[in-house]
Amino acid sequence: MSAQTRNNQSIVRKLLLLTVAMFGFGYALVPLYDVFCDITGINGKTGERVETSSQVVDKSRLITVQFVASLNENMPWEFTPVVNQIQVHPGESTKIEYRARNKTDFEIIGQAVPSVAPGQAADYFKKTECFCFTEQKLAANEEKLMPVIFTVDSDLPEHIKELTLSYTFFNKSSSEETEKLTHNHNMNHDQEI
Amino acid sequence: MSDAHHDHKPTGIGRWLFSTNHKDIGTMYLWFSLTMLFVGGTMALIIRAELFQPGLQIVEPEFFNQMTTLHGLIMVFGVIMPAFVGLANWQVPMMIGAPDMALPRMNNWSFWLLPTAFSMLVASLIMSIMGMGSAPNFGWTFYAPLSTTFAPASTDYFIFSVHLLGISSVMGALNIIATIMNMRAPGMTYMKMPIFVWTWFITAYLLIAVMPVLAAAVTMMLTDRNFGTSFFSAAGGGDPLLFQHVFWFFGHPEVYIMILPAFGVVSQIIPTFARKKLFGYTSMVYATASIAFLSFIVWAHHMVTTGMPVAAELFFMYATMLIAIPTGVKVFNWVSTMWRGSLTFETPMLFAIAFVVLFTIGGFTGLMLAIAPADFQYQDTYFVVAHFHYVLVTGSLFTIMAAVYYWIPKWTGNMYDEKLGKVHFWLTCISANVLFFPMHFVGLAGMPRRIPDYSIQFTEFNQMASIGAFVFGFSQLLFLYIVIKAIKGGNKATTEVWEGAEGLEFTLPSPAPFHSFTTPPQVK
Predict the structure, then answer these.
(1) What pLDDT, in 10s, does the model give residues A181-192?
(2) Is the CATH code 1.20.210.10 the one for domain B2-507?
């Protein structure tokens, strides 16, 4: 084997390693992206549960908080906020409720994913209690009120006067029954067309 | 005796199918690219025909979307990239004094993956025309969830096609790096390499760095579509915005992959016809390397309207504007090379000068787009279309044509028809501007891209663009004719070909022998 062939092989080996590493990096972007959003608090993702905050209530400001509920396409529930919007002072602990009802004849486990808009406000929206912290189970045709206790941090930037808290409920039970139901639902839908 | 052995060429179709010769493979790359130019060009003409008038005339909106998608994919992956790889195959060994590429068998494989990949992609269009579902219709940037949840079944063809293209590009890049690092003639240090070789050396590294990221993105799409993962689906805890980050991490270096070799070509041609040495060789090398580095930290300027925080927008805005500095260094170097040179204006030089002017216009519109607050207006309008066609058509494609005119006497041993070449240049240059310049205006006035219909106030500019498009498209048949004519015969080219030509490839006889340098030349 000539020196040149050996050199070629060593270069190719290194470059192939780089290729594989970059393929891995493509996948590593997924957790990196999440971590980055987590640290910087962008993307509207709200933080984990916080302990009751002993903040001073800032009576001089009034923030409008709106509530939005939506369902993933595979989620056969009804889901609405009990009140659509309220006004709170920063630092004040407030309790609101959402109403969810399972429209099917079988039990379904759901998981709600919260999001706050505008994204910059996400870090200042503190939840001490939320139905989104755990999975929610609803029996057939069961209806339930789901509470959220939150505080808007008094450090909230001055220019933000309105916040929107939205939840999307996802179907967590991967039972065949749910699939069959979704399927039937689609079939009905097709017939309507 | 040994000469007879070296000049032995395999014959028949086997010569091409099993070829390990850098010139034959380069030729195949270039012919493939020209073929795809006509395929993708036909799609562009369908788009322009539909846009000749407001309202829907010729094609259904669904088919229009397939046209914009496939036009983009074919022009990027099937025309510009293979053409530059073809040029690298032909020229790099000759320019560094090597007998062939370092890994000739892999070279064969990386070429033959290309027709395979495009057969799959075009098959999806043929099936669409035959009424069996839609071809990919989500734009060449294939944003999720359009390309995952809402995509046609043929998307899986597209995914595998991109995988094959990626493998092909990475192998091509590996080969070019190994050739350049390992097979330079004695005495040719890195800083004596021709600029075309330098730009390809850097481009090859870019390819190896980002094509695997694209492969990762389409693999995530594949598993999202078929195997229940949710990388890009919020329903399963993923994020559609993640797709854009992964895609543009590939996508921005990709646009430099398509322009850096063009810089190299122009840096070869201008000194020849100015009869002067390239001005600022060292700064050219460093400018190329800086552009390559910067390309990795600007990707999110494609995403300023996605709701990024202002700090991130500012970072990407300034980083993007920084690219204007090394690019400006290059433009000034080309102009300085021409300054007080004994200029002559043969066809390659005309294309090279047109490149310098028109690419700079594309660069300036790029700067406008880089301004984050202004980008909110320009995003997804025809202004963006005008910008990237100026850098890709009057930029990359013009230099590919310049390169063909410049080196075809060396490849075939015959001069091309200079008169026809000039006719081709003027037709191409004027029609390209008639085609793309009005797009700036309709874009600024708010005409969105990728839409088959538009408001009537955009009619005149769109008609100008469409007329330009048809002239531009049919002018390329003249290019095809000129190339065939040069292959068939013509005035014999000398060894130097051009009066002011320098470089090792112009020490080889014309046409260049089947094996370039069997004994390495000594470079002083």
Answers:
(1) 555 544 444 444
(2) yes
